[in-house]
Each structure stands twice: as structure tokens, then as C-alpha cells.
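To the team - iron/sulfur cluster complex, inputs and output below.
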Amino acid sequence: MIGVLVEEDKLGKRAVVILKGFPCSWGKCIFCPFIIEQSCRTSEIITTNSAVIKQAIEVVNRQQIDRVAVFNGSSFHELPFVSIDELTSVSEGRIFEIEERSEFVNRRSVVSLLKLLRPRKLIIRIGFENYYESVRNDYLRKGIPQSEILRIAELRRMLSEEGLPVELWTYVLFGMEGISEESVKYSVIKFKEILDGVIAVKYHRYLPNHPEESSVSKDLAEFLERECNLVDWGGEEWVFGGEEREGGEEKGSV
Ligand code: SF4
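Output:
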């Protein structure tokens, strides 16, 4: 679902801006729901996004929202530049969150984004999903080797030393058949040691060829609520042109 959503939770009040994007250049994760809304038509993407960004500008100004998260179903760097440029109207001076696959994240790309977007703080969410390489790559097909996690951890350390207003967060996926609760807990603990934030994302099955959902124990739910910056259980209220309606949307995981 494309549009603007206003959320208020553990992260505070924020506008969530869902844009249309090109297909993810990786495109192999076994649970990816984003293909439903991606497009290969550049003009359609630019036109749709311009309308959504216009709405986002109106919402953040009217409601004086200081934090904005942008999702486009692939990496932020895979948006048309026109859309990225238009987003400067909502990023400047605010806490601004985006999603990237890790291969788009290095010192140079981060500094370029800071110059262009001029946020008060830039939060880059990366979908590592699980610390265990076997779960992440053999099962989920994320295509992210362990060395990449260590590179991002080192980058985070360097950026922090430089005092740049950037934080690197990750998603951890739970509630999917084939991912044990033990591995979810271990992932949260390990990622908390090396990154700035962890968001746990409850898996929802959107397509018939996707893995089954699994139940979530009370013990895991309490652990995640205690240890993570946010637990995304899915399902939220959407705001379209001033109207509100219920909707469920899988977020994150680039
Ligand atoms: S990296 Fe993200 S957007 Fe790309 S295929 Fe995997 S889940 Fe989908």
C-alpha cells in the first residue's frame, strides 16, 4: 500500500512514507512481499511518489512531526533521483529513516546522503534479519555474508567516532516457520552489541509460495518488547488524503 501513515509508539510520533519503487536489485529473499507494489515504469514511479511526498509534506507540517521514515520496497538508493530530491522537503532538520541493502552503505554514500538530505539525524535500517549466516542466507536467501555484517559494524564505529549524525539499525525477523526463537534472541543480542538499533519484525505470509507463519511464545514476545527499539507486529492505520482506513503492510527488510 502506497501512502502516508502517522504512527506513535516506542519511537515516538512519526510519519511513515511508503513510496513506489523499482524492483529490488537483489530480489531473491524467500519472504519478500514487495514485488506486489513495485514497478518498472519510471514515469509512473516518479508521478506516484511526487503525489505521496506532497501529502507527506502537508502531514509533517500540519502535525509538526519531527521524525519521518521512508520505505520504497527496495533500497533507498534504488529510488529515482527525482523522488530522492523531492524528499529533501521532509528530511531537512528532522530525524529521517530509510532502508538500504548493506551493499549501498559505505562512508561515501552516507556522507553524500547527509549533504543532500540535511537531516538532523539519518537512521539507515538494514535487513540482516538473523545473525546466523545459515538462517540468513541458506534459508532466507538474503545474500549477505557474515563479513558484510562485520563491515557494517566497523563502518558504524567509524561514523560514530567522526561524530556524524548517522545511526545504523537492523531488522530481525520472527514468527516464521524455520526460524527458531533461540536464533531470534541470539540475533537481537548480537546486533545490539554492534549496531545502533534493532527492530523486530513479525513475519506475515502474503503470497502462497512464502514460508508458513509460526506462533510466537509469550517468552519471546516479552523478550523482544524489552530488548528491541521497536517490535513491528504489523497492521496499522493508514491516512490517505485526510481519510483513515485500516490496512496491514509488511515493512522493512531491504
Ligand atoms: S532485500 Fe528486501 S526488497 Fe530485496 S528481495 Fe530481499 S526482502 Fe525483498
